[in-house]
C-alpha cells in the first residue's frame, strides 16, 4: 500500500512539474517558411487569395482525407473565408487585408482559442522568380497549445513541416498551371487586312523572344516620336519558317490606322496585309508552345487539302502579357492565307 502511495505521489510530482514547465513556455510564437518559386508574384497571389484553391495544396488536407471543408459564397479577397472540421475540432480562416500581388493578412481561429495571425508575402526578384514567405504568429497561446507544442518539440517543429509541404505542393500546382496550353482550329475565316509598321530580322529558337522585344521597342519609339497611334495588337509576319532547325525570317509589326510614309533609310517600314481568306488557329498558352500550334495548323491544311496562297502567314498577340501574368492565359491568333 505504501508503494502505491509513493507511486501516486511521484506521478503527481511529475504532472505538476510538467504543468509548470508547460506554463512557463513563451506566451507567443512565430513560425515562418520561405520558398523560391519560378513564377511571377501575381500568379502565386491569385492562387493564394482564393480559398477555393487551398484544399489542392493544403498539407493538412493531404494528411487527413476525412477533413470536411466548407466554402461560403465569398472565398476570395478581403472578407473571404472558409472553415473546416477534422478529428481535432473546427477551424476557420478569414482574409483581413491585402496588397495586390505583394501581401495577404489573415486570421486563423481554431475552436474557442485565441486567433492566430497568418501573413503571406510575395517578394518579386529581378530574375523573374518570387520568394514566398508564409508566417503564422500569436501573442496569446493557450495552455493546451503549449502542451501540444512541447510534445512536438516546439511550435516550429509542430507547424513548420506543414508549411514546407504546403509551399512545395503550391509550387508544383503553379508550375503545372503555367505550362497549360490549348490549340483550337477555328477554320477558314475572312481577315480584314490593314497597315502596320514593322522591322524585319532573322532569328532562331535561342533569340527569337529577345529580337521580337527589341523590334517592338524600336517601332514603339518611332511611333512615339512621330505621334502615331497603334491600331490593334502586335503581330509577326513570317517570310520564312524552317521547323527543322528552328530558324525564321520575320517582320514584327504594330498596326496603324493608315499608310505611314517612313523616312528614307529608316529601318522601320510600313506594310500592308490585304483582305483574305485564311485558316485561323487560336492558341492559349505560353508562346513557347507556338511551334506545336503551327504543327497542328499545317496538319489540318494537309488533311483537308487546303492550298496556301502566296501571302505570308502571320500571328497576332491579342492580349498583353503584362495584364495576364499566367502564360497559360496568353492568346495568339495564327492566320495562314489560303487560295480562294
How would the blueprint of this fold be written?
Blueprint: H1 2-23, E1 29-37, H2 41-48, H3 54-57, H4 59-63, E2 68-70, E3 81-86, E4 89-99, E5 103-110, E6 116-124, E7 130-138, H5 143-152, H6 155-179, E8 182-191, E9 194-203, H7 208-225, E10 235-242, E11 247-256, E12 269-273, E13 276-284, H8 290-303, E14 314-317, E15 331-337
Antiparallel strand pairs: 1-7, 2-3, 3-4, 4-5, 5-6, 6-7, 8-13, 9-11, 9-12, 10-11, 10-14, 13-15, 14-15
Determine the N-to-C terminus distance.
108 Å
Element string (H = helix, E = strand): HEHHHEEEEEEHHEEHEEEEHEE
What's the level 1 CATH class of the largest domain? Answer: Alpha Beta
Number of helices: 8
Widest sheet: strand order? Answer: 8-13-15-14-10-11-9-12
Q: What would you give as the CATH superfamily of the largest domain?
A: Regulatory factor, effector binding domain
**Structural class, from secondary structure content?**
alpha+beta
| Whole-angstrom Rg | 30 Å
Question: What is the CATH architecture descriptor of the largest domain?
Answer: Alpha-Beta Barrel
Helix content bin? 25-40%
Shape: elongated
Question: How many separate domains?
Answer: 2
- The CATH topology of the largest domain, please? Multidrug-efflux Transporter 1 Regulator Bmrr, Chain A
The poorly predicted ranges are 14-25, 146-153
Which percent range describes the beta-strand content?
Answer: 25-35%
Q: How many strand elements?
A: 15
User: Major sheet, described briefly?
Assistant: 8 strands, antiparallel
Mean of residue pLDDT values:
87
Amino acid at each position: 500500500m505504501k508503494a502505491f502511495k509513493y507511486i501516486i505521489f511521484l506521478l503527481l510530482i511529475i504532472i505538476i512539474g510538467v504543468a509548470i514547465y508547460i506554463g512557463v513556455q513563451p506566451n507567443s510564437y512565430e513560425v515562418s517558411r520561405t520558398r523560391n518559386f519560378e513564377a511571377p508574384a501575381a500568379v502565386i497571389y491569385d492562387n493564394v487569395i482564393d480559398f477555393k484553391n487551398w484544399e489542392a495544396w493544403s498539407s493538412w488536407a493531404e494528411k487527413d482525407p476525412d477533413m470536411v471543408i466548407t466554402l461560403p459564397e465569398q472565398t476570395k479577397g478581403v472578407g473571404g473565408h472558409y472553415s473546416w472540421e477534422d478529428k481535432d475540432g473546427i477551424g476557420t480562416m478569414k482574409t483581413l487585408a491585402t496588397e495586390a500581388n505583394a501581401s495577404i493578412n489573415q486570421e486563423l481561429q481554431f475552436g474557442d482559442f485565441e486567433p492566430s495571425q497568418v501573413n503571406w508575402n510575395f517578394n518579386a526578384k529581378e530574375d523573374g522568380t518570387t520568394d514566398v514567405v508564409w508566417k503564422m504568429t500569436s501573442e496569446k497561446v493557450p495552455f493546451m497549445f503549449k502542451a501540444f507544442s512541447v510534445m512536438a518539440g516546439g511550435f516550429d517543429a509542430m507547424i513548420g513541416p506543414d508549411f514546407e509541404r504546403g509551399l512545395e505542393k503550391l509550387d508544383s500546382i503553379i508550375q503545372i498551371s503555367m505550362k497549360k496550353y490549348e490549340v483550337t482550329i477555328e477554320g477558314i475565316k475572312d481577315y480584314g487586312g490593314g497597315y502596320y509598321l514593322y522591322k524585319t530580322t532573322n532569328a532562331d529558337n535561342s533569340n527569337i523572344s529577345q529580337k521580337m522585344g527589341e523590334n517592338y521597342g524600336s517601332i514603339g519609339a518611332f511611333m512615339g516620336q512621330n505621334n502615331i497611334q497603334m491600331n490593334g495588337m502586335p503581330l509577326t509576319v513570317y517570310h520564312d519558317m524552317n521547323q527543322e532547325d528552328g530558324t525564321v525570317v520575320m517582320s514584327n509589326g504594330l498596326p496603324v490606322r493608315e499608310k505611314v510614309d517612313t523616312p528614307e533609310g529608316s529601318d522601320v517600314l510600313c506594310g500592308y496585309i490585304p483582305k483574305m481568306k485564311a485558316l485561323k488557329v487560336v492558341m492559349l498558352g505560353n508562346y513557347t508552345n507556338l511551334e506545336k500550334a503551327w504543327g497542328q495548323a499545317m496538319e489540318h491544311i494537309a488533311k483537308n487539302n487546303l492550298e496556301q496562297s502566296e501571302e505570308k502567314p502571320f500571328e497576332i498577340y491579342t492580349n498583353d502579357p503584362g495584364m495576364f501574368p499566367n502564360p497559360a492565359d496568353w492568346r495568339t491568333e495564327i492566320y495562314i492565307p489560303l487560295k480562294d
